Amino acid sequence: MYTLRSLALKNGKNTMVELALEFDGHRAFVIWDSIGCGNYRVKALLEIDPARLIRMGECERDYEYCGEIELPRPENN
Known about the structure:
It contains no helices and six strands. The chain is mostly beta strands. It has one domain (about 1-75).
């Protein structure tokens, strides 16, 4: 599993977050939430710009996102 660290906007304030990261071809997604549903896993994904991802250190699975991610607010859904 890949890990992403980034500055995020949460409730109008900047905060550092660590999220799971997935790739689908040339697209990149952070996993905002996931739940099990029988034999399936339902994931809430946020698409991000893969050009803004930078590998951190020597580990190939850790990335930093050089951009801002606006996290969804449940009351807006």
